[in-house]
Amino acid sequence: MELNRRTFLLGAGAASLPLLLAGCGFAPPAADSTAATGTLTFTTWGTDAELAGFKAAIDRFQKANSGATVNLNAVPYGQMFTNIDAQLQAGNPPDVFRVPYYTFGSYAGRGQLLDLSTQLEQGFSDNFTPQAWAAVQNSGKPYGVPHHTDTSVILYNKDALTAAGITNIPTTLDTAWSWDEFEQVMKTLRGSLPAEKYPFAYNWQGNGVTRWLSWLFESNGRFLSEDLLTPAIDSPAGTAAVDFTKNFFTAGYVPQNNSVKSTTLAADTWYAQTSAMTSGGAFLIPDATSTLDFEWGATFSPRNERSAGDFGGNALVATAATTQPELATKFLAFMTEQEEMSQFCASASLLPTRADLIQSGIDFAVRPELSPIFVGQASSVQAQDSSQVASPNMSKIITVLQNQLEEAFVGGQSTADTLANMTSGIAAATAPA
């Protein structure tokens, strides 16, 4: 199955949510190690590389468990959750499915996922980084496994930056451009590029609007208070984030069609050499390497009060209605074993969630020299930021962000009104039904 790049970028690469809860150190009772048998259905979307990785892993799982069968159902991303929701409502969902971290909370919060707290082996949580393990928690219990992550860095056209005299490209997270330095880079490029080309494009289209929150987090801001219900975005940090990103449009640093609700993706703008830089995830690497006819590199996202990032990627979950809970749990655990995760992430250009793989490093099959940049950027994700995105109300909050940022960027709405409208919208989204 071939996945359309445009559809995939709009949805699957969106920002997500490590969530540091009491369950982060979760170590449930040891599960029965007796091999489970039976048949599972596994529904997912994926790029060609991801689907190949899933098929290979399923083959290895079935060989290791001769009595088990996993039927893979690959669907287009655009149909994925419409189908899942309809099947859940009808009472015939798949046993296992793939879900973005930012959507995980809504399924777990509705009781639609299998509680793994009595299924997983003792110490299973120790395999993962705290941020990754917390991303699959709900009320202190795990309802999935963190399969992989991704985060956005700056991809740049080397010739465009060199022509503008920009040769000092940050090579470590600690030396990433500050906001002021990044604005100077964009200003320099604006003066060097023809009017029909732009310095930058940001990947906040579609559900990727959650990536805008990185600017808020870089200013030590929040959009929800610690109770994860009360709006907190109307703050000096919120003002700084809205003002800074609005200036992308007023100063001509990004094209007008780089807005949140645009159907033109940031990556497409960069691919067409309409922009010199773009924000993008590691999953873009294979496509960019095979299709681009210009030299390009990657560097870290800018920092303000501190560095921050989006925790993208996906979890694997079992549905509460599965008739094969032991087999489903065994499959989830297998998919996150060290060798399985290493192979999947390396071939698909994604980031691991296991602590041992983060420590040892991982080399992408394509452009392996870029791996440390993405892994380093992912390390800037903090639970105090991303725990907010774990709200079961996040889908409603995403709509608030989309509407208000669109008005701020291209509708002429003031920063004060934008923050006030975000505050009232978030309050409505988190209010009890």
The overall pLDDT, averaged over residues, is: 90
Shape: globular
What CATH architecture label of the largest domain applies?
Answer: 3-Layer(aba) Sandwich
Which strand order do you get reading across the main beta sheet?
2-1-3-10-6
What are the low-pLDDT stretches, counting only 5+ consecutive residues below 50?
Answer: 1-33
CATH topology of the largest domain: D-Maltodextrin-Binding Protein, domain 2
Let me know the number of strands: 10
Largest sheet: 5 strands, mixed
The CATH first-level class of the largest domain comes to Alpha Beta
Helix content bin:
40-55%
Which tags fit this structure?
433 residues; alpha+beta; D-Maltodextrin-Binding Protein, domain 2; five-stranded mixed sheet; 18 helices; disordered N terminus; signal; Sugar ABC transporter substrate-binding protein; transport; maltose binding; SBP
Description of the structure:
The protein has 433 residues and is of the alpha+beta class. The protein has helices at residues 5-11, 48-64, 77-90, 101-109, 130-134, 158-163, 179-192, 213-218, 236-250, 266-271, 285-291, 325-335, 338-348, 355-360, 371-378, 383-386, 394-410, 415-430, and strands spanning 38-44, 68-74, 96-100, 137-138, 141-142, 145-150, 152-157, 277-281, 296-299, 312-318. The protein has two domains: 5-150 and 312-368, 3-Layer(aba) Sandwich (D-Maltodextrin-Binding Protein, domain 2), CATH 3.40.190.10; 152-308 and 393-430, D-Maltodextrin-Binding Protein, domain 2, CATH 3.40.190. The protein contains 18 helices and ten strands. It is globular and about 65 Å long. 51% of the residues are buried.
